[in-house]
Amino acid sequence: MQVRSPNWRRWLARSAASLAGIAAALALLEIGLRWFADSGPSLFVRDTLVGNRYQPGFDGEPWIEEAGRHVRLRFNRLGFRGPDRDLAKPAGVRRLALLGDSFTVAVAVDEQDTMAARLEDELNRDGESRWQVLNFGVGAYSTAQSLLVWRHFARQFAPDVVVLAFYNGNDLWDNDARLTNFPRPYFRLAAGGGLELEPVSAARAGTSNWLNRHSRLYVWQKDKVAALRNAWRSREDAAPPAAEIHDSAAPPPYPEAWRLTEALIAQLAREVAAAGARFVLVAVPTHEQVVDQYWEEMLRDVGRERAATFRRDHADERLAALAARAGFAFVALAPALRAAPDPRATHFGKGHWNEDGNRIAAEAVHRHLAGLDADGRWSVAGGSGEPR
Fold it and tell me: How do residues 215-257 score in pLDDT, each as one tens digit?
């Protein structure tokens, strides 16, 4: 009996036709997005130092979906929001470096309405000292990336004060590679208790940068996937991804993630102190910490039995204890945001701070940091003196 061999030519022709059809469809989508969609190239560039930054030197008005409008954004020569600054401080000027994630960079509000800009305004109203607040926040940053930004960028500007804004909503698991697969550098705890860096792949960073620059379809699908994920997370019948941050008895690997996170913050505090600056940790609260209804809904969603170990300010309590042990200042923003006339009105829905949220945060940080002594000079955490 003769066995017929497969018709490889026909199979190859069909496969080639299918691939050509897919390629043509993708090309049409790419062209359509360039003509009709209100989007442009990605604002991000990836690198092997800190994982990602913004496009250096960008100055434009991209459409920001969360704000529902075009927002004027400018990124300096290093890829961080705000104007270019000389490395050398001008005479008589003090500097505050602000590290953090999307709450810190605040791309949904105009530059003058960010926490960084409002804090600079508050500081410069205090007295004779002149202040520059440098915004080193980048969307989706982890504490590990803030530590690397300090080492590679912020430290060069000789800040007098370094403020790390830690977002309770996701920074815990953003620090632990077991809880997220986002392409960023990670640290792990070594056997002796130290921190070992796992850097970003240079090949992966290069591929992502090419697609971000040249493919609107690639950028569009990333934005839409993120929007769908956020929409699912905000459903009233789904427990928020931040639930574990409130659980005082969270299962593994969350205790390990906490140890890693505390080690990262303590290491940053030590390096800042060694550079002669003061370190301040600021806890950015979850939506459930700010709005009573959201807290009650979360407890309902996780169930009565599990909710028995939940504490609304559990993360703030852990961070405050770390600050007390390590000897640096700590500010929890939850009380100030809860005290707003309408706590819900401080955010874009269940998203980032709006203009009011940024203002309240800046005022709360300023109240903690700033005090006028009898001579009207500015002091930080009880200290005073001339700029370094």
Answer: 444 444 444 444 454 444 444 433 445 699 999 999 999 999 9
Q: Each residue of 251-285: pLDDT tens digit?
A: 999 999 999 999 999 999 999 999 999 999 999 99
Average pLDDT over residues 17-26: 65
Percent of the chain beyond pLDDT 70?
76
Please, what is the end-to-end C-alpha distance for the chain in angstroms? 92
Which CATH code, of 1.20.1250.20, 3.40.50.1110, 2.40.50.140, 3.40.50.1580, is assigned to 77-194+236-384?
3.40.50.1110
Distance CA 151, CA 155 (A): 6
Return the pLDDT at 8: 72
Taking residue 292's Cβ as centre, other Cβ atoms within 10 Å add up to 13
The answer to whether 353 touches 347, Cβ cutoff 8 Å, is yes
Q: Say what the pLDDT of residue 25 is.
A: 61
So where are the chain's domains? 77-194+236-384
pLDDT at residue 201, rounded to an integer:
61
The answer to whether 265 and 328 have CB atoms below 8 angstroms apart is: no
Q: What are phi and psi of 233, to 5 degrees?
A: -65, -30
Mean pLDDT for all residues in the chain:
84
CA nearest 155: which of 282, 277, 330, 323?
A: 277
Q: Collect all residues with Cβ–Cβ distance below 8 Å to 259 and sequence separation of at least 6.
A: 189
